Structure formats: structure tokens, C-alpha cells
Fold this sequence. Notes:
- It is found in: Cell membrane; Cytoplasm.
- This protein is of the alpha/beta class.
- It has 13 helices and ten strands.
- The protein folds into two domains: about 80-170, Four Helix Bundle (Hemerythrin (Met), subunit A) (Up-down Bundle), CATH 1.20.120.140; about 175-370, Rossmann fold (3-Layer(aba) Sandwich), CATH 3.40.50.
- Helices cover about 40% and strands about 10% of the residues.
- Helix 4 packs antiparallel against helix 5 (about 130-145) and helix 5 crosses helix 6 (about 150-165).
Amino acid sequence: MFSFFRKKPAATPAPAPEPAQVQAPTPTLPPATPPATPAPTAAPAAPASTPAPAQPAAGGLIGSALVQAMDIPVAPPVAPERQGWMTRLTAGLRKTGSNISQVFTGAQIDDALYEELETALLMADTGVKATEHLLEEVKRRVKASGATRPVQAKNILVDSLTQLLKPLEKPLVIGQFQPTVIMVAGVNGAGKTTSIGKLTKHLAGEGASVLLAAADTFRAAAREQLAIWADRNMVEIVSQAGGDPAAVSFDAVTAGRARGKDVVLVDTAGRLPTQLHLMEELRKIKRVVQKADATAPHEVLLVIDGNTGQNALAQVRAFDAALQLTGLIVTKLDGTAKGGVLAAIAQEKPVPVYFIGVGEQLEDLETFDAREFALALLS
Length: 379
């Protein structure tokens, strides 16, 4: 299984310098011109009917060579261990991708295609700025490459979207701190507690010892829900019935340090960014966690629901202003036709996306890869 996180590698001694290599002298080639007096037994010329090796037509190339010459990217194959995930991701993004892919079913690249593409991107909640950026890139590269077929424009869009999303790629690193304290926030219904449970499973599966902090003391049954995940994953949990969220978080970080845990995951109460008094409670949790560990929290993650489209971007802005986010988990991309919101985030508020989810199963939450996402979206 592909790792959901990367531990900080241990320091290794610098390799010894390799001995200098002596370049072998270049052999002298025989002269390319035939000798002045040809041998009497020279081979006869090949018959005119003998087929010559296949050569590209003058002024053009064939197959993938044509694609390369026209600056139309050919995506490398997906790693075998990611094929299953790509299948699920493609199926999950079908509602978004089908609307965009239909733009490229015509016979030529013209103004009508660009107008339809603009509409499709906006309908996918790509956002005005990201849509303008992608359109400009596609037009520029189509003109530079001389592409004439819509499928070529589609390939260019895949590459342009990949480049736009690339800054969002970042691995979740644990091991630099003992423990790594991860604070998780999000609005009600975004899938926050479930995502914590899935992340716990994968962290524990990779050998990390995890301690959960049930600091969501506002929502009914939140503590019980997290306790179920703790039982399933056979990890410890710190909770208090009706306790103060900041106090629970403090106790969990303190316990994590005393017990030598690798990770402490703090589940906070769901809230809307417009609920200022509750947002202040999040700030309080962060301040109190820092009293238990001056370097913590080491990661502040926001879980956003892909169904909410542009509202997700507003949530990123608000929670980042309050907590200084370090990463995102985007869930429920399979239930929406608004998967383009990641492009809007990349263009306007590029907070790294650690994980994306396209279903309720454990394996439906995976690390984010820009190229995989672009290919799945526009397959």
C-alpha cells in the first residue's frame, strides 16, 4: 500500500568521493568516402523494388513523435501500485470530468470550443482566475504547437492543469518531532472525524504509534465515534465527557510525550467560519497545545467537502486566517460535479492538499498527486 506519510530519514554519512575517471580516447573511424578504386567484387545495388525503411513524411512526424514535436505532452504511465486508486479516482471524478471532456468531441479547435471550455470550467467551480489562467495556457500552447485537433487541445489542458496543481503536492512528514501533533479542523458534515479514523488506520499500518484526542466535545456522539475508530485501529484515546476542548488537547499532547507516541491527532469541533466565538475556541486550543509542547501543533489540517465548491475556498481562507493551515484533506469528490475547486485553491490560496477522498471505504482516501488528478478528471 502506498504510504500516506513520509518519516524524516535518518542522517547518513556522506558517500566517499569516487575516483576520477579517465575518459577513453575516441577511436578513429574509417573515412566515410569510398576508396578511389572500388573492388571488382562490390555488391550490386539493391533492386528498386526493395522496400526502404519506414521514414517520417517530409515536413511531419508520426504517432508520439508528432505529439512531442508539437509540444503536446504524453503522460508517463501510472505506477502499478496506484492503478487501483486511479480507477477509483477516475470513477469518482466522472461527474466533473464528463462535462469538461464533452468540449473536445468536436472536429476542430475554434472560438466555439474555447467558449464551451470556459463555461465547463466555471460550472466545475474552477473559479474565474483559474479558468482564465487555464484558457490562456491552452490557447498559447495550441498556437505555439500548431495543434488542430480537439484531442490535442485536451492533452494540453491536462498538462496545464497538472502544472497549476503541482504546488499543492506535499507529503505529510512525521518523525521530526516526538510526537508529531496534528490538529484537525473542519465544518460539520465535511467528514472530519471519519478522515481522522482513516488516517489513523494508515499511520498505524505503517508502524506509527498514534494517540487520539477527542476534543470535539460539542457535537453529540463525536467522542463515541472517535472511540470506535480508536478500537478498530487498536490505538489509545484521551477524552473527557463534556470536558473543555483545550484541556483535552493539553492532556493528550502531554500523554503523547510521556508515552513516547509518534503522532497525536487532535479532533476539534466542527464549526462554520462565520461563528466567530467558535473560531476563537480553535485559536484557544492551538495556544493551549503550545503550552504542552512549544513546537506544536506541527500540522494544522482542514477537512473540506468537495461538494461545497467555491464555498470550500472561502473555508480555506477563513480557517487559514485563524489557524495558519499547513494542509488540506478534500473529501467526497465522488458526489459532486464541482471537483475543479482544487484548481481554484491552487490559483488563489495554494495550501497543500495532503489527501483526497472519493468514497467511504478506507482505501478511498489517498495522497494527492497533481498529474493523477488531472488525468482522472479529463480521462
